[in-house]
Specification:
The chain contains 22 helices and 8 strands. It is α/β, with parallel strands linked by helices and 496 residues long.
Length: 496
């Protein structure tokens, strides 16, 4: 057996380290070289990239996919799909999921890694069917986390259900870096024993320092593919370095990847230069954070919590919030901490700490989670907490999307001629305000982004004041901070 490598640099690598700000123009020059490497696949779409393209970069995410696919002639494209959430933060009606998956395949997507934040397989059903019908590859995904109810047996049962649903491959998705080497060995061994002919992929973040060891134990137990990031975009809350794993596995002829280090070094040199361009978006969460092994909060979520506390002048209360985060997660049925459940749990923990009363102030999202609007939590929500959140209202027990009426025709009417095609309509459905702003900007001929225009206008105004001033004025220094909307999106960024 040889081990395959999925390269994450142009999706999860920059999402984890650079707030998903890498532009398509910085991907295109290196895609043909990446295509020559011999990767199992290249992750290039999904996760937060769809939102970020329109909201911050003034790019069409569909056009990015087409441009990438055009240059990857030998290597499959891969994406992250949030099940019934598609690439958004809420459940969409089945007609939206069907159309989105169909259009993703038509625009160039090959492999769909499909997950649900609660590991509720009912929320995967429509996406599985849609991808299969469109001719794509369905990768059924387990969101790995730690709790009394998240056991090897439970994960194995989920995997078997996804295989019965039609999964073409399986993935263990460790978004917080919690998969220990021994658990990697046990879980992979079980999954391969249950499904010996099913390709099994591992996705780990390097937050805790576990991931290289977990990968080694995993491939020795039979894992077929591991996710890595070229070294310039590796480590910390990203994935382990591609070159490191390639070199380590090369010493075992049964596991060797066949990838060539000199070519990877060329890629690393290119991406080092690219990373320098995005220095202002660096997460600041560098190196190993072994604390995640106790508080279990992914790196992206830590920055979210810090940002919320900083705005309230309460950053010093982070330890209290981390402790409360664990209690809230237990109260709410031990959901895995991944988008959007991580934001729901984290925000509620902040409110509990800052108000001094647990669940005295409750977010709409927390109530919706309690109502079952995101699906079934891994274990029932504590009865006293459920009473506190819902009163006498009873949560639903069926698949949440069963209550959603078709959405596409209404969206077409709302966006009107601003949308040129069905892809634009889907963009609008995923992110109404950012998509509308982007489409209007594009339809008007594009031009400099609003932030750039504002900066130029401000600079001209300052220049005029200087010219008119009778005495020298003090230099106006910038603190390098982002607009509030940018900061808010940074908080939404989670490990996928």
């Amino acid at each position: 057996m040889t081990v395959g490598i999925m390269e994450t640099a142009i999706r999860d690598g920059h999402q984890s380290l650079l707030a998903t700000r890498m532009r398509t123009e910085d991907m295109i020059p290196v895609l043909e070289l990446m295509d020559s490497v011999g990767y199992h696949s290249i992750e290039c779409w999904g996760g937060a990239t769809f939102d970020s393209c329109m909201r911050f970069l003034k790019e069409d995410p569909w056009e990015r996919l087409r441009e990438v696919k055009k240059r990857l002639k030998n290597t499959p494209t891969q994406m992250l799909l949030r099940g019934q959430n598609a690439v958004g933060y809420r459940h969409y009606a089945d007609d939206v999921i069907n159309e989105f998956c169909d259009r993703a395949v038509a625009n160039g997507m090959d492999i769909f890694r499909i997950f649900d934040a609660l590991n509720d397989v009912r929320n995967l059903e429509t996406a599985f069917r849609a991808v299969k019908r469109a001719g794509g590859h369905v990768q059924g995904t387990i969101c790995y986390t730690i709790s009394p109810v998240h056991t090897v047996d439970a994960f194995a049962e989920m995997a078997t259900t996804m295989v019965e649903m039609g999964a073409d491959s399986l993935c263990v998705k460790d978004m917080a870096g919690l998969l220990s080497p021994m658990m990697a060995k046990a879980l992979v061994s079980r999954l391969k024993a249950d499904h010996p002919d099913m390709l099994l992929q591992m996705h780990c973040h390097d937050t805790s320092g576990y991931s290289e060891m977990a990968y080694l134990m995993g491939v020795q137990a039979g894992a077929d593919v591991i996710d890595c990031a070229i070294s310039a975009l590796a480590g910390g809350t990203s994935q382990p370095a591609t070159e490191t794993l390639v070199a380590a596995l090369a010493e075992d002829p049964d596991l060797a990847t066949g990838l060539q280090i000199p070519t990877l070094e060329e890629l690393a040199t290119y991406f080092k230069g690219v990373r320098r361009k995005y220095w202002k978006f660096e997460s600041g969460l560098l190196g190993i954070d072994a604390g995640v092994l106790s508080h279990q909060v992914p790196g992206g979520m830590i920055s979210n919590l810090v940002g919320q506390l900083r705005e309230q002048g309460a950053e010093a209360r982070l330890p209290e919030v981390l402790a409360e985060n664990a209690r809230v997660r237990e109260d709410l049925g031990f959901p895995p901490l991944v988008t959007p459940s991580s934001q729901i749990v984290g925000t509620q923990a902040v409110l509990n700490v800052l108000t001094g009363k647990r669940y005295g102030t409750v977010t709409k999202e927390t109530r919706n989670l309690a109502k079952g609007m995101y699906g079934a939590t891994p274990t029932p929500i504590a009865p006293d907490v459920l009473k506190e959140l819902l009163g006498d209202e009873q949560p639903i027990t069926h698949r949440p999307a069963d209550d959603l009426a078709p959405e596409i025709e209404a969206a077409k009417a709302e966006i009107g001629d601003t949308a040129r095609d069905i892809d634009d309509v889907l963009s609008y459905l995923m992110f109404p305000q950012p998509a509308r702003e982007f489409l209007e900007w594009r339809n008007s001929g594009g031009g400099p982004e609003r932030e750039l225009v504002a900066a130029l206008v401000g600079a001209l105004a300052i220049g005029e004041k200087k010219a008119q001033a009778p005495a020298p004025v003090q230099h106006i220094a910038s603190n390098g901070s982002e607009p509030a909307a940018w900061r808010n999106f940074g908080r939404m960024r989670q490990m996928r």
